[in-house]
Amino acid sequence: MSRRLTHIAGGLFFGLPVVGLVYYFFAEEFSYFRLVLIIGISIVCVFTGAIFPDIIERPTNPDHRGLFHSWFMLSLIFISAFIICFVIIPRYGEKLFPYPVFGFFLGYLSHLLLDSTTKSSLR
């Protein structure tokens, strides 16, 4: 359980400021209401991204750090997030949803960064 809390805290401390700063600097019309809404939604997405690899590949499993604990999977998630944020979502004119998708990616990235600092590292 303490590992999961470490990943959650790491994801939130790493991901939420980045999501907030990206909105602050790149929003066409900045509003504090939208910022709070984006941060609120992004909390759930960063939280999910930070524990997603451990949900898929349980830490109790002997093959714990497999495909979902690899830089290859991170690159696939990055490409998927990029396509969702810059190709699919803009077609519908919605400017709120790219930030939570980006937050999920940042949570996932923080999980892999934290795991890479351990003795068993990543694949």
Quick gist of this model?
This protein has 4 helices and no strands.
Order of helices and strands: HHHH
Strand content: under 5%
Please give the share of residues in helix. over 70%
Number of helices: 4
Instruction: Report the biggest beta sheet as strand number plus sense, adding barrel if it closes.
Output: none
What is the global morphology?
elongated
Show unreliable segments: none
Rounded to an integer in angstroms, the radius of gyration calculated over CA atoms is 15 Å
Number of separate domains: 1
Structural class: mainly alpha
Q: What is the average of the pLDDT values? A: 84
Quaternary state reads single chain
Distance between the termini: 23 Å
Report the count of strand segments.
Answer: 0
